[in-house]
Specification:
- The structure holds two protein chains of two kinds.
- Helices cover about 25% and strands about 30% of the residues of chain A.
- By secondary structure, chain A is α+β, with helices and mostly antiparallel strands.
- Among the domains of chain A are: about 25-90 and about 120-195 and about 290-365, 3-Layer(bba) Sandwich (FAD/NAD(P)-binding domain), CATH 3.50.50; about 440-540, Glutaredoxin, CATH 3.40.30.
- In chain A, helix 1 runs parallel beside helix 4 (about 125-140), helix 1 runs parallel beside helix 8 and helix 8 (about 320-340) runs antiparallel to helix 9.
- Residues about 70-80 of chain B have low confidence and may be disordered.
- Classes of the chains: A alpha+beta, B mainly alpha.
- The structure holds flavin-adenine dinucleotide (FAD).
- The site of flavin-adenine dinucleotide has 34 residues of chain A, from helix 1, strand 2, strand 9 and helix 8.
- Flavin-adenine dinucleotide binds near residues 34, 126, 151 and 307 of chain A.
- Chain B: InterPro entries: DUF2783.
- Chain B: It comes from uncultured Acetobacteraceae bacterium.
- Chain B: This is DUF2783 domain-containing protein.
């Protein structure tokens, strides 16, 4: 087998509490140094909140799992200082192409408009992302990463959680005032709390192969239904960096997972797909059965569940990791606000209120995709093939083809943190994620999203004619002014020139409109020429303070 | 808009014959796909989610209880539109 990547091995460091009778006291403990735990640790650290991160292993993800990073994830990593690395190191793509039998049915563009810093998707193996996150966490000096620290028993208490931790040099106990369970789909914390993880198993198997090769395919997502080289099943192809390609072969429920993993057998499948002329080497092979399931609630007192520990989806649509990153994005500013004494503990309930519906949405979409890809009855198969037969010649059928509804940012539609009724109807509604646009700053090209939520604060985004006028921002709220025309000398600080008009169009705003953005960039409230008190009230509400 | 359930086809026998003709020579699976393509084309032509869901519910009910083929009340199955 080829190997384009060698897992780093992180050293075990003896925790000071080892051998002590008393439990070590820690304010924030994160269990699980996977994608979710590392993202949460970095987000908290950048908000000044230290944490202890425990991982049973001593390395990043073994083998490639997630590869497709959606625009919103890239924007979140942009905020955390890693977005550029995804762009440089990863493979950018915006196009999906669908084939049926031996013909192309159609293609689609996921980001048909220009003027965004990040594309619809970047492909990059999960281990690279995790490696950068580990380094970035270490750099903050605020994340105490403890490799080979395995959490065993967990006792959930009113004032936190008591953890038993096993290490190569013996056990110790740790009392976490706040616990973030990011320990993956088989979460031990979830089991220790005896919380049911319910949902659906899909009766199908998929062979996932990472292959090193140089085929003449462009960087796009290619999906085949019932191709001649793999009849009766589907195949998905993605490019990764370093001449690495990901192929998913649908196998059906009756496939023998052990046999299907055998290299010779996999090589025959890949050869059938590529034809005789393209040399390739296998790098990594695995067989999966996918599920969709979730915890009923993501907050249990002082314990929170994030990522795969809270919810699991089938990978069509790339909603697992991308959803997990949005979990961290949602919770960390809230926890920082509570720990900093700026918000009541009840703010933390909104994590469940906002991310629960987002998880349901991810499960709904990935279940529907799986149902289309794996028809369960003769009728389902007939309809699926009928849709595909129509799709090439008739655009009307294309929206019905479901080879995965790719991850979209959650719109927190019914958030308790949003202030209803103050916005003009054209404005981006409350709960929406922020939308990027090209801008000029002091005459130089720049991106709007780079200027929102500086230092992790709320932002007042004010639209003005020239950048000479803006409402006063309450204490602790940053101000960014979008000018419709070129700002003259003497304009306010933080004025961005909306030279293309795209910011005004995408946000649905005209001069005099003002949006209050939460520290995760989502819209908390919209106004036209608001009084200072109205903005303060909306900020109070977004911080979980009871309405005055 | 609600699903129109009064007879509307000008030449019912002609339409029925054309439908049968379209199925001629097809095996069961191919016939099934033909019907499915037809449903999709017609559904797109109608293009009104509430009407479509009403039709789905009516079709299902008519098959399940042949003795008491109900005419749905306009408000009943349109939820979720
Ligand atoms: C084949 C495949 C393809 C995928 N493709 C995509 C994709 O393209 N895009 C996408 O967004 N998502 C994708 N996903 C999903 C994505 O990989 C997961 O959603 C993501 O890894 C979840 O991260 P996590 O940190 O929550 O869990 P994990 O990555 O599972 O991390 C859990 C961590 O917890 C640690 N841990 C576990 N138990 C303990 C314990 N008791 N004590 C201490 N530490 C513990 C583990 O060592 C591990 O580091 C894919 C998944 C698969 C399997």
């Amino acid at each position: 087998m080829a190997s384009t990547y060698t897992n780093p091995r992180f050293p075990f460091r003896r925790p000071a509490a080892l051998g002590r009778a008393a439990a070590e006291e820690v304010r924030v403990v994160i269990v699980g140094g996977g994608l979710t735990g590392l993202t949460a640790a970095l987000d908290l650290a950048q908000r000044g909140v230290p944490s202890v991160l425990l991982d049973e292993d001593d390395t990043v993800s073994e083998g490639s799992r997630a590869i497709c990073w959606a625009k919103r994830t890239l924007e979140i990593y942009g905020r955390l200082g890693l977005g550029g690395r995804f762009l440089e190191r990863g493979i950018t793509w915006n196009t999906g192409r669908v084939f049926f039998r031996d013909r192309e049915a159609y293609s689609f563009d996921l980001l048909p408009e220009q003027g965004h810093e990040y594309p619809a998707f970047v492909n990059l193996p999960q281990y690279h992302a995790e490696e950068w996150l580990v380094a970035a966490c270490e750099e903050t000096g605020l994340v105490d990463v403890r490799w080979r620290n395995r959490v065993g028993a967990v006792e959930n208490r009113a004032d936190g959680a008591l953890l038993s931790v096993e290490t190569p040099e013996g056990p110790y106990r740790l009392h976490a005032e706040w616990l973030l369970a990011c320990d993956g789909a088989r979460s031990g914390v979830r089991r220790a709390l005896d919380l049911p993880f319910t949902g659906q198993v899909f009766r199908d198997r998929f062979l996932i192969a990472d292959v090193v090769m140089r085929p003449p395919f462009p960087a796009e997502r290619r999906f085949w239904f019932d191709p001649p080289f793999h009849p009766g099943q589907s195949v998905l192809l993605h490019q990764q960096p370093d001449d690495l390609w990901r192929i998913d072969f649908q196998l059906g429920w009756d496939a023998d997972p052990e046999r299907e993993r055998e290299s010779d057998r996999v090589a025959v499948r890949v050869r059938a797909m590529l034809g005789p002329d393209i040399p390739f080497e296998l790098e990594w092979v695995s067989v999966y059965t996918f599920r969709c399931r979730r915890l009923e609630r993501f907050r249990h007192g002082h314990t929170f569940f994030l990522g795969d520990a809270a919810h699991q989806v089938s990978p069509f649509g790339a909603r697992g990791g991308n959803g997990s990153v949005q979990d961290a994005d949602n919770l960390c500013w809230k926890l920082a606000a509570v720990l900093g004494g700026r918000a009541p503990e009840s703010l933390l309930d909104s994590y469940d209120a906002e991310r629960g519906p987002a998880a349901d949405d991810n499960i709904l979409h990935s279940t529907r995709s799986t149902d289309f890809i794996t028809p369960k009855t003769g009728a389902a198969l007939a309809y699926r093939d009928a849709v595909l037969e129509l799709a090439e010649a008739h655009a009307l059928a294309r929206p019905l083809v479901n080879s995965g509804r790719l991850s979209r940012p959650a719109v927190l539609a019914d958030s308790p943190l949003s202030t209803p009724g103050t916005a003009r109807s054209a404005m981006l509604p409350s709960g929406s994620p922020p939308v990027d646009a090209p801008v000029l700053r002091d005459g130089r090209p720049d991106w709007l999203l780079r200027h929102l939520n500086a230092e992790g604060r709320f932002t007042l985004l004010a639209f003005d004619h020239t950048g000479l006028r803006a409402p006063a921002a309450p204490p602790g709220v940053g101000l960014v002014v979008m000018a419709e025309r070129e700002p003259p000398a003497g304009h306010l600080p933080n004025v961005l020139f909306d030279h293309s008009g795209l910011a005004a169009r995408r946000w649905g705003c005209a001069p005099g409109d003002v949006l209050l953005l939460r520290p995760d960039g989502h819209v908390a409230a919209g106004f036209h020429a608001p009084a200072a008190a109205a903005v303060r009230a909306a900020q109070g509400r977004a911080l979980g303070h009871a309405a005055p | 808009m609600t699903l129109r359930t009064e007879p509307r086809i000008a030449d019912p026998d002609g339409f029925y014959a054309a439908l049968m003709e379209a199925h001629r020579g097809l095996d069961d699976a191919a016939s099934r796909r033909l019907d499915a393509r037809l449903v999709i084309l017609l559904a797109n032509h109608i293009g009104d989610d509430a009407v479509l869901l009403e039709a789905v519910a009516l079709a299902r009910a008519a098959g399940a209880a042949p003795s008491a083929c109900p005419t749905p009340s306009p408000a009943a199955p349109a939820e979720g539109g």
